[in-house]
Design a protein that fits this description.
The protein is an alpha/beta fold. It contains eleven helices and ten strands. The mean pLDDT is 97.
Length: 352
């Protein structure tokens, strides 16, 4: 049996805005599901520490951090129509980034086999200098940069299966050849980035970004094809020493924001694929960091399934089930074929 750390904190609940879909109820539903599933007693609960300011500055501009802190000190406000700050947001955001760092530390120091940082606010849209898309500090990017700087890793893969493109993570590492950023996302959709042609800086990090923009209605079968024919071959070619996952569950068919039709079992298959790749490539070292997911039942069920898999169990039942949908597989296959023809990691791997 594997050992799995969970890092979270009830103080994240203080970051909530009345009527906003990214609200405290998300983690409350996950905590309730951990209790009802019986998993709470089988995971290691590690107390998180706030991220050091130096770790935040390694990813974000001082001006962005100042604005978030200042907004919070004024009692809150909005960066844009999507992204809010409350009086407690600065502390929550710094602790969320700290959870991601601490999860990586626990895995790299071999305290546990793997970990899941259950955090809010989410992070993958936050660019070096801009808060957007519900995101303030880019938690997974802070953790990845920390692993590069403090553990001397040379190759880290970030896989983002949130329904939205992780534009912030891409921007942060677009010129960093030591970080492979892979994103599967609905297209065209918010934030409008993540085309096949965005493959990393041609001068500094060619092929270090791998985008898989998918047509609306893609579900279990389409995502499985992408992970088997694109994500897995790319990771095998890159040979990461650590896999980080931006675990957003808003591609579930019931999600109010996403136009995809993945099921809980579909997400479980993606997660199991990544766990298997971590076992094969980097001694099982994998860390999940929560991003989106706004149907509370689907979100909590996906987290429970992911934790079961991290513990070395089967995914368990899908309490919500699948939907019958006509998947646009011909379009999915066209995206796959384009990547196999054009992306350096897939061409170099000899993928046909």
């Amino acid at each position: 049996m594997r050992t799995t750390a969970v890092l979270t904190d009830p103080s994240f609940d203080a970051h909530t805005w009345h009527g906003h879909v990214e609200q405290a109820a998300r983690l409350q539903a996950i905590r309730a599901a951990l209790d009802s599933s019986g998993l709470r007693q089988h995971v290691h609960h590690l107390a998180p520490r706030p991220a050091p300011e130096a770790a935040l500055l390694a990813v974000h501009t001082a001006d962005l951090l100042r604005k978030i802190r200042q907004f919070a000190s004024y009692g809150g406000g909005q960066f844009d129509v999507d992204t809010y700050v409350t009086a407690d947001t600065w502390d929550a955001a710094v602790l969320a980034a700290g959870c991601a760092i601490n999860a990586v530390e626990a895995v790299l120091q071999r305290q546990v086999h793997n970990a899941f940082a259950l955090v809010r606010p989410p992070g993958h849209h936050a660019t070096p200098g801009r808060a957007m898309g519900f995101c303030l500090i880019n938690n997974v990017a802070v953790a990845a940069r920390y692993a590069l700087d403090h553990f001397g890793l040379q190759r880290i893969a970030i896989v983002d299966y949130d329904v939205h493109h992780g534009n912030g993570t891409q921007d942060i590492f677009y010129e960093e050849p030591r970080v492979l950023f892979c994103s599967t996302h609905a297209a065209p959709f918010y934030p409008g980035t993540g085309s096949v042609g965005e493959m990393g800086s041609a001068a500094k990090a060619p092929g270090a970004t791998l985008n898989v923009p998918l047509p609306f209605g893609t579900g279990d079968q389409g995502y499985t094809l992408v992970f088997e024919q694109v994500i897995a071959p790319a990771l095998r070619r890159f040979q990461p020493q650590l896999i980080l996952v931006s675990a957003g569950y808003d591609a579930h068919w019931s999600d109010p924001l996403g136009p995809m039709v993945l099921s809980v079992h579909g997400f479980a298959h993606l997660t199991q694929t990544l766990i298997g790749l971590a076992d094969e490539l980097c001694g099982g070292q994998i860390v999940l960091v929560l991003e989106g997911g706004y149907n509370l039942e689907a979100l909590s069920a996906c987290v429970v399934a992911s934790l079961r898999l991290l513990l070395g169990r089967d995914a368990g039942p899908d309490p919500i089930g699948e939907v019958t949908a006509l998947e646009p597989l011909s379009e999915v296959n066209r995206v796959i074929a384009t990547l196999q023809e054009r992306h350096p990691l897939l061409k170099s791997a000899g993928v046909a």
